[in-house]
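The passage that follows is intended for readers who have already worked through the single-chain material. We present the inputs for a multi-component assembly, then the predicted structure in tokenized form, and finally a short commentary. You are encouraged to pause after the input and sketch how you expect the pieces to fit together before reading on.
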Amino acid sequence: MKTIGILTSGGDSQGMNAAIRAVTRTALNSGFRVMGIRKGYLGLITGDIVELTATSVSDIINRGGTMLRSARCLEFKEEAGVLQAVETCKKFGIDGIVVIGGDGSFRGARDLTLHGVPCVAIPGTIDNDIVCSEDTIGFDTALNICIDLVDYLRDTSASHNRCSVVQIMGRNAGWVTLEASLATGATVTLVPEVAFDFHADVVEKIKKGQELGKDYFIVMVSEGIFFNVKSNKNYEYLQSLGINNAADFAKRIEEETGIVSRESVFGHVQRGGSPTAHDRILATTMGKYAVELLGQGISNRVIVVRDGKIVDLDILEALSMEKPFDVERLQMANMLNI
Ligand code: ADP
Ligand code: F6P
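Having made your guess, compare it with the prediction:
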């Protein structure tokens, strides 16, 4: 191994820059050249590649986003795209690649390895939806942004005695919502993985709160409850109620309870800003680990957190694992919040 490439792929997440820095500096300090591949797998297809030095990665440990940029590259899902990427690696002398991204990006890393370009992957996504890992780079920062935003909302919601319906980003998974709810004390918490009943779990909960003297409410829902995907247990149910989005959800709460309701959709703001200490350190540790594996001639691995420890797994094995949603934790959130 003489030259290591690095790319960030899929949705960006805070801490990707810290991982780029750790990979680059570890590789340089181990005697490798480092090539930064821009815009994920697209840069491998188009040859959008720059050499990285120790100073190329100065002043990024504290920054959100990714200095290498990211992309969702559909061409790479085709054999022709992978073959083109392999040619680019030959042209630039890239002997191995560290891929930072989500499970889609891991599949790309597996394909490249199978075509003779050894890859090691690092989980970078705010969603924490990677089945083989208990944690992902960016999750902690996104969670803390949600907490700040809910704290802001509380002020205005309380002043006007309203119900705020907060929609949390997290794709098809409810992990960000669950932890944000535990940390903010939302009155109601709804995720795609667990079926709910609008009357019992939302209307009655708010009414009970009103009886107890609560005069404003935070109802926290994952964006995924509105997605038409198999993992969402609530899509058809919500459709049957005529609820398609957070605005419909808020309107229905207002109709059923009489409390004035407003929706707040957090969206991509969750993906920005300076990474927390947790994400910077996770990214740094995983970045160093990834280069060490490639340096030892080990590839087709993904770095993960299992039982609180950072370890590596075979990518295929990792992708076939399951991460059941923590229903007991959701029950705890919903039990404590009135
Ligand atoms: P994430 O990595 O965050 O899950 P995506 O699912 O969008 O995000 O995947 C990122 C990129 O990884 C895709 O744009 C594509 O280039 C590549 N990719 C995704 N799925 C596959 C697949 N099944 N085979 C090969 N490459 C894939
Ligand atoms: O996977 C990260 C994520 O931010 C999800 O939470 C969200 O559903 C999706 O990406 C949004 O994708 P895009 O940035 O392409 O709109």
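Commentary: The pocket of adenosine-5'-diphosphate (ligand 1) is lined by residues 9-11, 41, 72-73, 76-77, 101-105, 107-108, 111, 125 (CB under 6 Å). The chain has a mean pLDDT of 97. How closely did your sketch match?
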